[in-house]
Amino acid sequence: MLDRTTTLQDDAPLLIAEGLGKTYGRLQACRDVSFKLYPGEVLAIVGESGSGKSTLLQLLSAQLAPNSGRVSYRMRDGITRDLAAMGEAERRLLFRTDWGFVHQDPAMGLRMAVSAGANVGERLMAVGHNHYGKIRETATTWLERVEISGSRIDDAPRTYSGGMRQRLQIARNLVTEPRLVFMDEPTGGLDVSVQARLLDMMRSLVGELGLSAIVVTHDLAVARLLSHRVMVMQGGRVIETGLTDQVLDDPREPYTQLLVSSILPA
Ligand SMILES: Nc1ncnc2c1ncn2[C@@H]1O[C@H](COP(=O)(O)OP(=O)(O)O)[C@@H](O)[C@H]1O
Ligand SMILES: [Mg+2]
């Protein structure tokens, strides 16, 4: 379970964003965003549709180059590196080892035509595992950990339900024990009943693995359940930030007050 009492700020930051900005033509999709993420911390980025959440997540995960500012990441060796200064191969390695990315649409994060076992096993092979029996065993363990029966290991995710696909995507991402997981609306495409179960599972896994995560969501219930801290975005800017319970129970900004009273469209 999430421990909200620990002072996470004792360690060095895992990720630092400084003055991040991104424009699309004349549109400022993201403006001057700065923050630090600490090890074991879950940060939610909330705001209405079009507020710049996904753009920010893509900047943070080096999938998009900023027009201004920079992102630094503390590698496993303890050295903090500027992502823009890394080579493409090094960034790809980071994605295969240290980072996970959970997309709203599981089809974006899975290979739909190959077996569930291969979807999970592939990530293990990418970090150097090569013993077929071991890989299959670990894949089975992870499928069961996300409540998918091991008997479905040879089935392709296109035969899975939406909720199962999303759980498989989570297993594929977590099997290599990443240090940081990015999630963009991880429960967005699912039925409400399925969402609740998935959220519960994600909350347990994040707690058990001591993961750091950045979760984009327009659903404040997701932020409430998963995150220690929230950043509220409006028009590409961060307009309010703080501990999740404080921001959601006692929002300062009028926009956040509207968001909390769910007057704004999702
Ligand atoms: N590839 C793109 N090209 C042009 N405009 C974009 C692109 N991606 C996002 N935008 C625009 O940037 C703004 C922020 O979008 P986005 O980051 O997707 O918001 P959110 O995830 O909060 O819904 C929106 O106005 C959106 O239309
Ligand atoms: Mg989005």
TrEMBL record:
Signal peptide: none
Family annotation (SMART domains): AAA
Keywords from the named record: ATP-binding, Lyase, Nucleotide-binding
Keyword Transcription assigned: no
Job of this protein: Involved in beta-(1-->2)glucan export. Transmembrane domains (TMD) form a pore in the inner membrane and the ATP-binding domain (NBD) is responsible for energy generation.
Coiled coil: none
Stretches assigned to the ABC transporter domain: 15-260
NCBIfam families in the cross-refs: CP_lyasePhnK
Origin: domain of life: Bacteria
Pfam families named in the record: ABC_tran
PROSITE patterns for the chain: ABC_TRANSPORTER_1, ABC_TRANSPORTER_2
Taxonomic lineage of the native organism: Bacteria, Pseudomonadati, Pseudomonadota, Alphaproteobacteria, Hyphomicrobiales
Name the record gives this protein: Phosphonate C-P lyase system protein PhnK
Family according to the record: Belongs to the ABC transporter superfamily.
GO molecular function list: lyase activity
